[in-house]
Amino acid sequence: MGISRRPAPGALGVGAGRKEAIATAVTLYGVTALTFMMLMYALEKRGPGFIAAFAVGCLASSAYGFLAGAWPFGVVEAVWAVIALRRFLATRSAAGLR
Length: 98
Fold this sequence. Notes:
The chain is an all-alpha fold. It has 3 helices and no strands. Helix 2 (about 50-65) packs antiparallel against helix 3 (about 70-95). About 15% of the residues are buried.
């Protein structure tokens, strides 16, 4: 049977492999951002620097949400970043740090 059922090269669309690579990169970025955020959240009680790092992790997670097309997640993480930043500033002020 001389009929091949495999698609011709390029039949999946131009750059199909590139799209997969981008999706994989976004996923790896997301896993890294979320792991960092959760680690900093667990270490917050060690000092204000960890609260600031948690805020950065929230921003990174927010960026991931928007990159992945999950904009509600991106919005929620941006709100958490603001909350964490305010907690950092309050903690720093209470400790007399500038």
